[in-house]
Automatic annotation (TrEMBL):
One of its GO terms (biological process) is photosystem II assembly. This is NAD(P)-binding domain-containing protein. Residues 137-233, 437-518 form the NAD(P)-binding domain. Residues 38-73 are annotated as: Disordered. The gene is LOC100811347. Residues 279-380 form the NADH:ubiquinone oxidoreductase intermediate-associated protein domain. GO terms for molecular function: racemase and epimerase activity. PANTHER family: FLAVIN REDUCTASE-RELATED, NAD(P)-BINDING DOMAIN-CONTAINING PROTEIN. It comes from Glycine max. GO terms for cellular component: chloroplast. It holds the Pfam family NAD_binding_10. SUPFAM superfamilies: Galactose-binding domain-like, NAD(P)-binding Rossmann-fold domains.
Amino acid sequence: MMNAATAANSSVYSQTQCRPLSSDVRGSIPYLNERKSRLVVRAGGGGRPPKEDGEKQQQQQQQPVSLRLDDVNPVGLGRRSRQLFDEVWRKFSGLGQISGTIRSDDQEALDALLVREGPMCEFAIPGAQNTTVLVVGATSRIGRIVVRKLMLRGYAVKALVRRADQEVVELLPRSVEIVIGDVGDPATVKAAVEGCNKIIYCATARSAITGDLFRVDHRGVSNLTKAFQDHNNKLAQSRAGKSSKSKLLIAKFKSASSLNGWQVRQGTYFQDVVATKYDGGMDAKFEFNENGDAVFSGYVFNRGGYVELSKKLSLPLGYTLDRYEGLVLSVGGNGRSYVLILEAGPSADPSQSRLYFARISTKVGFCRVRVPFSSFRPVKPDDPVLDPFLVHTLKIRFEPRRQRPVEGNATMKQDLRSFKLILEYIKVLPTGQETDFVLVSCSGLGIEPSRREQVLKAKRAGEDSLRRSGLGYTIVRPGPLQEEPGGQRALIFDQGNRISQGISCADVADICVKALHDTTARNKSFDVCYEYIAEDGRELYELVAHLPDKANNYLTPALSVLEKNT
């Protein structure tokens, strides 16, 4: 029986068993081993050689066994495994060509391969052939393994790389579509996401320079999420709003009549009798100007004062917000921050309503702000979590406190008590069942103390931008990466920055691939490392039995006990 206090945040699972590759394939693909149960005796690296002509077989048996440095060099092993994989993939791809013909020698070789290796379809995932995955950082230690695992399972793979010289091309299978670009450049990122259904982000900065960390770990993730959302928006528009993936329009401010129903209110958090004599007052208005913009503007000079714009929601018949993921606002202005407030409860009895808030930041000019419902917190800590089904009123509040000067305007004097917000539209994002974006972050272990803080700062900023994007996400924080075969040891899945061991690149890659279609992995962040024995009284997890199954799905039970929206 699990201890609820410990299982709420972490768990350990032994790996499950699947049909292994043959000995020669397994030996040539060093870090591609599938997960196996610790209770199953593992096969050795050798195996029975395929039947050949008698003379060749005798020659092979008479040759002395010699081991060179190249035989254990990961680069050499990877090159040989890539050549073998490309040959296998070319032959299997030929089966799907209706108009193509297979030569007799190719057919014989393919038949021999099927007999010798067994059915490769054991790795196939339903729907993989219709899914294109963009791998960012495809030439990294984890990315190279992710690419091959995806292709073994039938996915179409695109790889975003900074350059496509011969050295980079040799690291990837020939059937991978290579896109040249920089994650720091929104234009090239926009082209990379075209036609993609999911993204796995394995890129990491090559140096500890602050500029590189910001460009790759923070700005790169932000650019990918925005480009991917824009791509999904185009697809939703082509479906003319008839799909469950289409956004629901709450308000679109295109004429003066679209402002009907919105009310401007003023208020204070507390009343200071002495300070009131010296307050400069506050004022706000919501109007449709001559430029065709709906502008909410004003100032708040009162201590503890605020102004807000509110409206009672009116959804189309048969629609409720519990079917959606969160809000998306297209806004412009002078870069102030605001508080979004949702009022939820029985619409017939306002006294039973509860307030939930989430803070948003804007920038100078126009931008899209995505706010998942999961980011709203109750104003009263004892109130339950937000139930979108009960939401009936939306408020946009400005308050002078917690305002920060706009970056880039340090030479200009900024009055943080005034604001201007241009509203273009407010929509709700459709909910999803699967992860759209898998981000490989880090736990901070194994990083030099002198650069750990700045690395983690950039990583956490990238994680925050992904959470705010509205995409379904999975954030994996592995321990120190190790170059060893995967599937050999049990893993710990934990939350709370408490892990202390490393993990192989192959195991991290396997988690990324499995998270793509695992509903329990959606909107979760977790640390993962190899199993270890904690000190007495400091146990962070408990071992949970997991029976091996054909699906080899260890991720679902491991993540089911972890918290969402983390």
